Amino acid sequence: FRIQHRGDVELALRPEFTPTLARMVAAKAASLPQPIKWFATPLHFRAERPQRGRLREHEQWNVDFVGWPAGSDHERTTLALADAEVIGCMIGLFEELGLTSEMIRLRISHRSVVTELLRTLRIPEETMPAAFALLDRREKISRDDFVKQAGEIGLSGEQQEHFTHFSGLKIRGEQPWEGLAGLLPVEEEKLAELHALRQALKKTGLLKWCDFDFGIVRGLAYYTGVVFEAHEVKGRERAVAGGGRYDNLIELFGGPSLPACGFGMGDVVLSLVLQERGLLPAGANLLPEPDVFLVSAGSDDAEDRLITLLAELRRAGIHARRSYRSTRNVGKLLKEAASSRARFALIIEAEGQVTLKNMATGEQQKLADEKVAEALSGHT
User: Is the dihedral of CA 268, 272, 278, 282 positive or negative?
Assistant: First the structure.
């Protein structure tokens, strides 16, 4: 979205975050300790027709690893460890949300390796950008349209056949490396960065999530090396997340030459995948679990003490809630405590006594009002 502001100043609503991050680092690199590990969850906007998995406005989780500590090297093994750490951050969220490697596959490629593959097909350098753009569209169009468009960018019949073949070239990450290297008509040295990343992913226990897929190129031209996308295995949705290495971007904006890797994950496709898998929380499950839910046993004295205890518990850093229903039926109020997923219910009775109930085990204990915060603090 572009906006004409007063004084003919052109403004835009942010379509992505990586260039913004690169500008920030370029301006402040000398004063920032390295490596720089940043994340952000800003709003992003697209001036296009909304469709499934792609809306005009969405939130996106961005994670980036930039630079190195003073005195460290930029050898491919070190780069690979940074790439693996970024990928591990993504996979960690998937695991936290209940997704597994049988539901999500991380598809990894390398822009330089794909370039070498195109060169083996004798595709001219001036045709490379169009070939990359077509690869990026391959899963959005039919195979026949893919072949047709390959011809439209100037590929011969034989080139189209080989181009279509390697665009679908994929191997599971856990398969022997020799199997992958043997499939590619590329010198082993050209595969060294991918090999180093595979080793790093294996050491960190992430390889079971990964496939090597040389149809993945990412559509943005600033990517320089490893690129990756996370896809739901049923293939119904767009990429859940995507990213890669962009080692030249900070320098392009006037900063020092710094290696950088990161990814973005939007909320729209992720929500669709979680919904499809029955993992999207709803209702009270969207809220944090309270430590304790306060229930009045019914007397006016108990109601007054509830108000006092609620304030005292919150001041003690305990997540406490209460019901605002008019009923004094303790059974119904305990059901409300259970639906809030509180770990404890505090039933406030007469004569300065309360009952603290563990909602998971049903265990109960009698306490004086002044002992409640102390008892709960041992469980928070």
Answer: positive
DSSP designation for 34: S
61: phi > 0 → left, psi -120 to 50 → alpha, else beta; which?
Answer: beta
What phi, psi does 36 have (nearest 5°)? -95, 120
Residue 159: CA atoms inside 13 Å, Cβ hemisphere, count? Answer: 19
Residues 273/240, Cβ–Cβ less than 8 Å: yes
Q: What is the pLDDT of residue 325?
A: 80
Q: Which token pair is 166?
A: 């390697």
Res. 73: pLDDT tops 90? no
Distinct helix (H) and strand (E) counts, the chain = 13, 16
Q: Summarize pLDDT for 81-99 with one digit per residue, the tens.
A: 999 999 999 999 999 999 9
> Domains in the chain and their CATH numbers?
2-276 (3.30.930.10), 287-377 (3.40.50.800)
Residue the block writes with tokens 């010198």:
187
Sequence-distant (6+) residues with CB within 8 A of 165 are: none
Local confidence band at 246 (pLDDT 50, 70, 90 cut-offs): very high
- At 43, is the secondary structure helix, strand, or coil? strand
Q: Which residues pair with 356 in a beta bridge?
A: 346, 365
How far apart CA 362 and CA 21 sit, in angstroms, is 51
- In terms of Cβ atoms closer than 10 Å to its own Cβ (0-12, 13-18, 19+), residue 275 is exposed
For the chain, percent of residues with pLDDT exceeding 90: 55
